[in-house]
């Protein structure tokens, strides 16, 4: 069976079985689309079909674009990868390490050891976390009235660290600070910078922090998985007049748009004659940038928004700038050195430079690491390698 038929069949079955309300998937090579599929509708309460131009919240798939922007500025000598990042963003010097809470529930902190670098921000080794996977950060936010990161307020960036910079890996808000560094040195908002230097040159006209009227006419609803396994629509939207454009997770996009970014990565940093990053910068981005540190399981602190999460448990995984790298072959058939990451609403992508193939799958479901939606993605990746 042709890969296109296999992918479509996986998506159709997923919708029929209630794994997703709607989902899209696309496989690309260096010359663009190999095949794509779409199934279901844009909402549990909608009869409008899910299509490749359906606009979705891509959440942490935003990070790879922010990392690309930051690395453009490193390439230009405007940002330092390993110098003190506080020289660009002074608020980083104000961050202490959270050690616990006193008898009245007030946070207790200590001075941070060492400077924070852009490399650490991009590899999730700077000490930041997310309340979704850290009960301590959730308790801090509640005790201090600090908003969560998806509220897009700059006060969230004052939350203390969970450990000293460079000590270990913990998935968190580091790339939001990187986004603020991009804004500082460029003099633009992050969205403006993307439009001029990343999404614009790549032809990603449906990718933005702010949902245009045209994008809104094609938007998918968000869905929550109920205890009985069913999916219901839930109200959710990233603030549309934000104080801070969230470099770690604020973008809306389509699968067609995102696959233009993946194709650029397959082509060593260029697409259609537009050089987004140099070959040397591209090589830095796709290589282990965290040394001997390794990715570990994320244990949920807010079950409605995430399950415990780790891709390919038992495999060694490092981090590039800004992708997870499987240091060993994955069970899907992806070789060692493959790149991947995901978005909170169960969207996933991978990039395989060795075989010159990449893929993306997007659904709009929480909690993250939903076994049923992720299972469809993993089937599609496996089917792609079976077809090679």
Give a description of the structure.
The structure is a single chain. Strand 9 (270-271) and strand 10 (274-275) form a beta hairpin. This protein has one domain: DD-peptidase/beta-lactamase superfamily (Beta-lactamase, 3-Layer(aba) Sandwich), CATH 3.40.710. With 388 residues, the protein is of the alpha+beta class. Helix 2 (62-75) crosses helix 5 (174-186). The model has no long low-confidence stretch (mean pLDDT 98). The strands form five sheets. Strands 2-1-15-14-13-12-11 form a seven-stranded antiparallel beta sheet, with helices on both faces. It has a three-stranded mixed beta sheet with strand order 7-6-16, with no helix packed on it. The protein is built from ten helices and 16 strands. The protein has helices spanning 3-16, 62-75, 118-123, 135-144, 174-186, 190-197, 213-216, 255-266, 279-285, 371-387; strands at 22-29, 32-40, 56-57, 97-101, 107-110, 222-225, 231-234, 252-253, 270-271, 274-275, 317-319, 324-326, 338-343, 347-352, 357-362, 365-366.
What is the straight-line distance between the termini? 12 Å
- Encode the helix/strand succession as letters: HEEEHEEHHHHHEEEHEEHEEEEEEH
CATH topology, what is it called? Beta-lactamase
- The helicity comes to 25-40%
Q: What is the CATH first-level class name?
A: Alpha Beta
**Mean of pLDDT:** 98
The CATH architecture category equals: 3-Layer(aba) Sandwich
Low-confidence stretches: none
Number of helices: 10
Biggest sheet, in brief? 7 strands, antiparallel
Strand content: 15-25%
Placed side by side, the strands forming the largest sheet appear as: 2-1-15-14-13-12-11
The coarse silhouette is globular
Rg, rounded, reads 20 Å
Number of strands: 16
Structural class: alpha+beta
CATH superfamily: DD-peptidase/beta-lactamase superfamily
Count of discrete domains: 1
